[in-house]
# Entry
Amino acid sequence: MSDTLHVVCPECNTTNRVLRARLDAGATCGSCRAQLVPKHPVELTPAGFDRQIAANDLPVVVDFWAPWCGPCRSMAPAYEQAALALAPGIRLFKLNTEEAPDVAARFGIRSIPTLIAFRNGHEVARQSGAMNLPGLVGWVRAHA
# Structure
């Protein structure tokens, strides 16, 4: 296991090399100084989606959701808490399918919320439907 990781900034999408030991010590982006591993889910844009998925050495989980979706809204607080519990080793993101229909179509999202776990740019697991905090954290730890 390498001592350094590639971590993509959630603000400017710049790839940073970070010492594994510094992840939990508030590592910041070399370009924009944003926190590299925030302890909350980060909203992805269609423009930054591929870079965040492909260039991060950390496992990534994306919640495909929409503002009108009741189950998505009911799972949102658990997803927030899961991000806090899983940081800094796993990054949680959200993608609004209304703002990114092309990305949602590319991944065959047919129901929301849908969670997809990625490792090294490849999908490794998928789960549709809302989950509570213990179920969510357990699923992410088992698959990310």
In short: The mean pLDDT is 94.
